[in-house]
Design brief:
Blueprint (H helix, E strand, L loop, with lengths): L1 H18 L1 H13 L4 H22 L1 H10 L20 H6 L1 H4 L9 E5 L7 E5 L1 H16 L9 E5 L8 H13 L2 E5 L8 H11 L3 E5 H13 L9 E5 L5 H11 L3 E7 L3 E5 L7 E3 L4 E6 L10 E7 L10 E9 L12 E6 L6 E2 L5 E2 L3 H6 L5 E10 L2 E8 L5 H16 L4 E6 L14 E3 L6
Parallel strand pairs: 3-4, 3-5, 5-6, 6-7, 16-19, 17-18
Antiparallel strand pairs: 1-2, 7-8, 8-9, 9-13, 10-11, 11-12, 12-13, 14-15, 16-17
Helix pairs in contact: 1-8, 2-7, 3-4, 9-10, 10-11
The structure holds zinc ion (ZN).
Length: 451
């Protein structure tokens, strides 16, 4: 009885969502698009953009008001470039106008998501349910360019649940992953004593490929080379969530004796771009998103600029020209492959140094964005390590922050991962200095350790 109720309540809906006709329908739609011409894709993108803008004019109070003031008429849009008449949408604008950005006909029906922010600003947003299915479809297609096929046994080096609080979520994730053929190893618990398990699992699970955060992939690759291990052959490796430097790519490819494919995404939009086998840049999902690179005034630039993204299928809380905090550069030439999607030449996403302890435990940089996701009253944060036994966390607080509760929850999450080896100190500051390129670095290690 208990089993049955568990099955119907948790397992079956997950099964449904996996087999859900819409995800597969959208997946097939996106797969079909990759055989179209660049002009056909541009036409699809424009038609989707016009439909979205029309929806915003009818149902989204924020755009109704600001477009009226601007004198912008969505019906006049002739090309995607006409978007430059509209201002950029920053995280702070979304925070200030949160309710007005939700479409009136989707109020209360959306999925709410939180992010630790690629630039150290915790952030909350919503998207509609169909949007979720579409995101999956686009992501599966992008991974497919690396050789992934739906249902392939995939080993994940990924950030999992942290501490006791997340046990329920962990079980849900486990079932979902199981149904997708995924085996997820939690990199937040990787250290020098258990790193061999990340290799052992390749022998026992026999995956088709590995998807991982870049830095744990790199750690494992170094370990494999150091121990001279010959790992079973893999079809592909996909690196995600962190930038992939060429020096890291070489080491990972050497250790696993297979190609590594770079991807770029963020929580607000899931997969934005991915490499094909020609690896001349990241193909952008322009039949699903508008991806612009802009200066601070919202004008398109051919140089390095703000990643500025419009999700053509988030009708629940449309984010038009959303600036996610990353810097990127579009490629002016097209790929030598047959895909109709343009290329992103480079992206400077989150720069996350790892945090280490005297005993050799490692906290990947991704740990902190994950932890800060739920801290809505934190405007910005930065983790700095100058000594092996302590870290300093700088916090720019918003009104209403319960600092004692926040400190307690962070202390216990860090303790769950590295025990008593690391003391955490909090500093409440008015501002956090940005890097020369205008980004906030989420974690900074000033220790002289090889990355
Ligand atoms: Zn290509």
């Amino acid at each position: 009885m208990l089993y049955f109720s568990f099955l119907s309540k948790h397992l079956y809906p997950l099964y449904e969502s996996f087999r859900g006709r819409k995800t597969h329908l959208y997946y097939r739609e996106y797969l079909a698009n990759q055989h179209k011409t660049p002009d056909e894709i541009a036409a699809i993108q424009l038609q989707k953009l016009k439909a979205l803008l029309h929806h915003c004019q009818l149902h989204v109070p924020y755009y109704q008001k600001s477009w009226r003031e601007l004198g912008f008429d969505p019906a006049s849009v002739q090309s995607v470039a006409d978007l430059n008449q509209l201002p950029l949408l920053t995280k702070s604008l979304v925070r200030q106008h949160y309710d007005e950005l939700i479409a009136s006909n989707f109020r209360g029906k959306n999925i709410t998501k939180t992010t630790g922010g690629s630039t150290g600003e915790p952030f909350r947003f919503e998207h509609d349910r169909e949007n979720y299915d579409r995101r999956q479809g686009v992501a599966w297609r992008g991974y497919g360019w690396a050789g992934y096929e739906l249902g392939d046994k995939s080993l994940y080096y990924w950030g999992g649940a942290i501490g006791r609080v997340a046990k329920k979520a962990a079980l849900k994730d486990k079932l979902y992953n199981m149904m997708l053929g995924r085996n997820v190893l939690n990199v937040f618990y990787m250290d020098k004593d258990n790193i061999h398990r990340f290799v052992d699992e390749i022998f026992s699970f026999k995956p088709h490929g590995i998807v991982g955060y870049t830095s744990p992939l790199f750690e494992v690759a170094q370990y494999i080379l150091e121990k001279n291990i010959k790992v079973p052959s893999l079809g592909w490796i996909i690196s995600a969530a962190e930038p992939l430097y060429e020096s890291q790519r070489e080491i990972i490819e050497q250790a696993f004796a297979t190609k590594v494919f770079n991807t770029y995404g963020c929580r607000e939009f899931t997969l934005i771009g991915a490499e094909c086998s020609h690896q001349q840049g990241l193909h952008l999902n322009t039949d699903h998103l508008v991806v612009e690179v802009t200066d601070d005034f919202g004008q398109g630039t051919q140089g390095i600029g703000n990643m500025t993204i419009t999700d053509l299928h988030n009708y629940g809380m449309p984010l038009i020209r959303f600036v996610n905090g990353d810097l990127g550069k579009l490629k002016q030439t097209s790929c030598s492959c047959d895909l109709p999607f343009p290329l992103l030449e480079s992206v400077e996403g989150r720069k996350l140094d790892k945090i280490v302890t005297r005993e050799g435990k490692i906290i990947p940089g991704e740990f902190f964005p994950r932890l800060f996701r739920e801290m809505r009253e934190v405007e910005r944060y930065q983790v700095v390590q100058e000594h092996l036994d302590r870290i300093e966390i700088n916090i720019v607080a918003l009104p209403g922050l319960d600092s004692a509760a926040m400190e307690h929850s962070i202390q216990s999450a860090v303790k769950a991962v590295v025990g008593q080896e690391l003391s955490v100190f909090f500093h409440y500051v008015d501002a956090i200095a940005l890097t020369a390129s205008g980004k906030n670095r989420v974690t900074i290690s000033k220790l002289d350790v090889a990355s």
